[in-house]
């Protein structure tokens, strides 16, 4: 019997959602690469970006344009990484489309190794990613919804 999809059950991440619309959930990653690391998850089960309809893709792009500035402001970021890992070979750990947004502060430009990009490409030893508490997640959600 196949394991149920973790992202198809909203109860698995409901307390981390800070934005929801007709097609997508925006939620904070429990083990962020950087503060504000967000996942955008389609409500319908799908594996790839190409599985989204034109309407879903349009809403996704409009939401990115609308909500990215607030995400960057709250986490004092000057840039961001936007990533999709499709297939286990590419680092996808949950077989359900999800898009990573990782806010990047100015201080990241001085790092000798870009651990965020390295983690996406899985070419460095395991990075120590701290698990956020529910209280930390709730504080961040309050800031994002101001």
- The low-confidence runs, each spanning 5 or more residues with pLDDT under 50, are none
Order of the strands making up the biggest sheet = 1-2-3-5-4
Tell me the overall shape.
Answer: globular
CATH level 4 superfamily? HIT-like
- What is the β-strand count? 5
The run of helices and strands is: EEEHEEHH
CATH class: Alpha Beta
CATH architectural name:
2-Layer Sandwich
Explain what this protein looks like in three dimensions.
This protein has 146 residues and is of the alpha+beta class. The chain has one domain: HIT-like (HIT family, subunit A). The protein has helices at 54-74, 115-121, 134-144, and strands at residues 17-20, 24-28, 38-42, 79-84, 99-104. It has a five-stranded antiparallel sheet, with helices on both faces.
